[in-house]
Amino acid sequence: MADIDEDSTIRAPDSTDTDLSDEPQDFRFLSALSQTSTSHPSLPRRGEKDFEHHGTISQTSTLEASQQAMHNALSVPRTHNPKNNIVGLYDPTNGTTIIENPKGPMTKTMGRGDIQGRLNLLPEEALYLIERGTMDLRWRSEELEGIPLSLQAAYAHLLGDQGLTLELYTVYTSLKRIGYVVQRGPAWYSEDYNKDFIKPRQLERDSKPLGLFARFYNSLFDTPHPDPPPSGPLVAPGLYRSYNSIYRLLSLISTHDPSLPPPTGNPSALPLPWAIPPPPPIPASAAASTRGNQPIRTISGNLLHLHRTSVLLSLTQERKVFRC
Amino acid sequence: MTPTEAAEPLLPVKEPPRLPKPNLGKLHAKPFPLTTYPLPPLIPHNPISILHIAFTYIYQFIAPPSSHPKAPYQAYFSPETRSVHVTDEVAIRALWESGFFGKGSLSRSEPSWLDRERRRRGLLANETSEEVTRQRREDRKRFKKERARKEREAIEEKLKEEKRSKQNSGTATPTARARYEGVNGGPVESLAESIESLIVQEPPDHPTPPAIVITGAGDILEEDPSTATLNQVPNSSTALAHQDTGIEAAPVQNLEHLQLTPSEAFFLAYGLGVLQILDPTTNTPLRVSTLFALFRQHSYFPPRQIPTLEPDDPFFLQYATYHHFRSLGWVVRPGIKFAVDWLLYLRGPVFSHAEFAVIVLPAYRHSYWSGSEALRRETERRSRKTWSWLHCVNRVQSQVRKSLVLVYVEVPPPSALPPYSAEDDAPVDIGLLLKAYKVRELTLKRWIPNRERD
């Protein structure tokens, strides 16, 4: 019986239980691969977990080896390959970052190109490229022409520019490191918020409609049921040929149809899947921005992805023909 | 050796009767406690089927059978527990089997107390779900204890080994290690092996039910063997101090009743019309409109008076959701087990696990609710939930592998509801009241970027 096992929790660890990014990595596996290579071939795997201090030599030595491996990994000097180096120019007067000669796979998905073949970068993209080491950012102004920006200067100028905050930047970099192509979403510019209405997937609403003869045959024996009394039972005692009619009598509560676009003109309307009232308030750090939730388009900064489904609506039809 | 004991080996031990397993599909064939009378199928090339259909149709025309039971099932409203109790055996079986309404007051879900009591007395050999669960929990506890013990032993052994090697080499011990000498420690690599060995262990057999003797007609059983055998001798000369003595003389009285939540009871009374709820003090049936007010009042604690009831009473919201999902065909049961409001089953809890866990939340989108500052603050306070709450709820549901569904019930302004009078004589159109509510469902899933690439 399914009822028995409902509280059984002995099972293999599920992917939804643990979040790999929450657990610290074991750097010993990284050091096992290569000590002095400048390229980091892959992320280190998880090792075995100890829960309490045992006081054994083996445990302390394992711990020391892991810490040493982590120090080694972090102390590798970062080098830039002059062959792949891109030079970006930062103009402090209007806060634009331009790459004159974009090359490399990174620039294919970032920035916005113009007619002359230059690439205009958004501040978070520029910061990301600097951090990664593919771009070398230089000043473009009268007295500082050609001088490279220090990392501190880059952060100071680019964060806070065009609505970029440190939290948003952190989310951006983590997603980019995973491998996504991340672009700004419509919520960034709140005037366009309502424009991006994503129509939900069309699920099969109606089961196959009955043929002509079947409908005629059914209509022969249909008995019309009277309207239910105000406080009487919705399903009055009588002759019912199938449960379809019973369900039809019971349907009272109206539902919201997600395939319709939201009503315009209502600023408090909830047009989008990630703007549901009551909005689960994003933790205080991200909520500090005055424009409320400004998620980057593909992902909300709070690790929640809200779907609007019409699964339950579609089950109406399925269930109504289930019992005949 | 007493004469009774000498007679024991000659008599065979009678096993308690084991009932055959019920066919669940047949038992729970009806989604509601209503019967339908479909016409026989039409087989066009067989003229007899047409005759059959015509005969059935005319017969049902002359003497139409009713879909409802002859008399509505009776139940009592209990204000102390804010629920409706069904005590009639036939009604309990009917309500549970067709639609899975209610919960046994002494059981997990299905009212199985009588079976368990019979099994305890040795009258039945079928295991109930509660016993299976208890057995499984005991197994798990034992396994965990064993594992912890093995871990501790491995750690101690490792410590001893290191102490020995340290003595052999004669090096000075660092102070950090000496400080933690007393604490149990252990090797990491051999822990895995010890746990492996534990899992290979066979689980122990199910313990047989303890030997129980009935001492008197209808009394609660005593498990003291000495007094039992003393009473046994005059009662019967043939039986053993084992299972089936004096069964026929002591029928087990069912002490359990079926508990219905207010939403379920109201659905049965108003939606289907198969239940009649009696006032516990006066034993008179309550009218549906009175019942409605009563449930709304009791959805608060302490119960409120009628004039102070509001359109977003908890009963209203819960019932709107319950009615909505029931009318779509889901089996809806209370979800307090998983810290949600309702659980949705496709066919029933005996067939599969619940697919969805539903949480009901009010939504105040109508312009009336943002009319005045006080109203806005009040609705804000009522509908605001913290992000930590959402994370917790989401985590619970992902652990038990259910999809979390947030159901927002649009609360209409008080003007949209017809005026409610305290007197019973004015009939309240409950259908109109319910039609004013709108339901919006949303599924929720935590998105972990490391895991999912779609």
UniProtKB/TrEMBL annotation, chain A:
The keyword tRNA processing applies. Residues 71-139 form the tRNA-splicing endonuclease subunit Sen54 N-terminal domain. It holds the Pfam family tRNA_int_end_N2. Residues 45-55 have a biased composition (Basic and acidic residues). The keyword Cytoplasm does not apply. Residues 1-58 are annotated as: Disordered. Residues 32-41 have a biased composition (Polar residues). Keywords: tRNA processing. Belongs to the SEN54 family. This is tRNA-splicing endonuclease subunit Sen54 N-terminal domain-containing protein. It comes from Lepraria finkii.
UniProtKB/TrEMBL annotation, chain B:
Residues 315-409 form the tRNA intron endonuclease catalytic domain. Its EC number is 4.6.1.16. CDD domains: tRNA-intron_lyase_C (cd22363). Residues 1-24, 128-185 are annotated as: Disordered. It holds the Pfam family tRNA_int_endo. Residues 131-141, 148-165 have a biased composition (Basic and acidic residues). It is an enzyme of class 4 (lyase). Keywords: Lyase, tRNA processing. Constitutes one of the two catalytic subunit of the tRNA-splicing endonuclease complex, a complex responsible for identification and cleavage of the splice sites in pre-tRNA. It cleaves pre-tRNA at the 5'- and 3'-splice sites to release the intron. The products are an intron and two tRNA half-molecules bearing 2',3'-cyclic phosphate and 5'-OH termini. There are no conserved sequences at the splice sites, but the intron is invariably located at the same site in the gene, placing the splice sites an invariant distance from the constant structural features of the tRNA body. Belongs to the tRNA-intron endonuclease family. This is tRNA-splicing endonuclease subunit Sen2.
